[in-house]
Please model this.
Amino acid sequence: MVKVITYGTFDVLHYGHIRLLERVKELGDYLIVGVTSDDYDKTRGKINNQQSLMERIAAVEATGIADKVIVEEYEGQKIADIRKYHVDIFAVGSDWTGYFDYLKEYCKVIYLPRTVGISSSEIRHSQRSLSLGLTGESNFLNKVATECRVVNGINLKGICAQDTELLSYEIRDLPVVTKNFNELLSYVDAVYIRSQPAVHYEQIKAALKAGKHVLCEAPRTLSVSQWDELAALAEENNAVLMDAIKTAYATAYERLLLLLKAGKIGDIISVDATCTSLAHSLGSGEKKYEWDNIYEWGPTALLPVLQILGTGYKEVKIVTRHADKEKKHDSFTKMEFIYPEAVASIKTGNGVKSEGELVISGTKGYLYVPAPWWKTDYFETRYENPEMNRRYFYQLDGEGIRYELVTFAKAAFSGENFYNIAPEISRVISRLMEKFVCGIDVVEI
Ligand code: C2G
Model:
């Protein structure tokens, strides 16, 4: 019996895939099809699958062509599969010509001509496209623009900025470049807001009223009443209103939360997050548009505290140090939380430097994320007995911005909420910003 194997993502299964499976099957008597797992696809840059692994497997099975379907989970698995199943022939489409020649040591390798004129990307693209506008003066938008290029279904259309000095040529060359936010709105389906936090409310409101989806760099608003008003407006207009905190979309961070929920370090007693940077590294052009320290770092530092311990703290104390005589900007802010059965702290600084780590203490051990934890691809769980310590590594592409954009596009297309940041958490972040602005529970040093 001649055994043949092939692999693929098989997202939105189409005629090209079916033709390939049929021809591969004709090469032998028994066909094994390896369908790529979502995680494996993520690591090889395929982030836009429309269907889940289960749906893709079901579609391959439904063709009735495969005798066996397996899951491809890691790089190098093909060799293990060929040995395990005593495979005689490996076959794949001609877009991979030469790439799998290393398998010739284990079996025959055949590249079959691809069916021309059809691909999953084209199907996805023709089905859905979200034209996106950016707003703000920050050079962070350059990163967002770069990531937009690799996310299928997002078409970067324009920018609204009062000053384009910090923006890349790619952004300055977009079809729409304007200083008028309403003009930008008239050209797009959605906006990414990275303007000063004080103008978020007005911009989000204008966008939602125009029926546009909004991805806004946290903090969303500087008051809870504004937060509530905008949430209601988003619902009324069937628009997505999502906070942008890139760390929430880093695979390592997502997995860390799951491990904690599974009780890996026991009951959680303390969460301590530090985020700092030195402002001197910024050029003068950048300094003009810099956010206050608490806006820049607060939402990111608060994220693990609120996601791990929840929003039901009993008490918060805020200590802040001003950066200037007018007392307009903070250079360092610490928040301490008391929960019924735990405590937490965040330390944020801009112009004050510390170790940017995240430490979560539990009754069985602790979880440690080294600096800079907000761009994490790695963490450790540590115990009294060092033999039990474990290290976890994950791939981080585009600092999390890429997956954040994918999530936003999915939500906009489906109308369903897939966000990694629960509304209640976004709301409490706004409440804490409001306390800061109004000086409630704040001590100045
Ligand atoms: N294919 C084809 N004709 C098309 C489109 C795809 O013959 N018009 C083939 C591809 O060449 C591949 C298979 O269908 O052999 C599955 O395609 P994808 O789902 O795009 O998977 P791919 O990323 O090519 O995965 O480990 C993964 C595999 O190496 C290939």
